[in-house]
Amino acid sequence: MKLQKITKKEKQRHYEDACGIAHALDLVGERWALLVMRELLFGPKRFSDLRESLPGISANVLTQRLEGLESAGLLMKRKLPPPAASQVYELTDWGYESEPVIRSMGRWAARSPAHDPTLPVSAVSIMLSMRTMFDPARARSVDARIGFRFGDETFIGRLVDEKLDLQRGTTDGADVTFITTPRHMAAALYAGMPLSLMIDKKMMQIEGNRKIAEIYVTLFPLPEKFKLPAKV
Question: Domain range for residue 151?
Fold first, then answer.
């Protein structure tokens, strides 16, 4: 007789606390839940795309997180019309309201002395970090369309009037396009790696206006690290 593999459903835990923070953790406090939501902030994704963006998650756990977030009203499933005809997951309007919270957490955590910006990062994560760390004062008089190609994933940004709008989309019409990996993009933005060096080492290609590219990577200063108290 062929044995059937049974997936044990994880028991939902609750804090039994009326505080809004406690209830927020009831909703998204399970491991991977917030990262699943992060990956959907730039639009819907298929199950396989989510797994690719979160390489440390198992199919079992991802299924459980998607079910939990759906039952909480934070995301929903829908089927794309032909010819794609595949199922995708997307945030509800309420789910999208989590973005300012997620961005604030990211900025806060970046002050940790233990934060390592050289670790792997997804395409959505690096784009969200740009939304988070953008400094309008550094973008005065810059008017440009910025494209990003991370393998099959493409994004387009509009920089005008000291505002930056980043969305998933084609790079058509961009004044400059960065062709690289999310990890190498992070090195340019946050580790100060010169673009000329990255191009020489074939870590990045730049199509279009190189001067705009040089300015763009300076617009995202990291917050100052917290200084740990001296040990007595």
Answer: 116-216
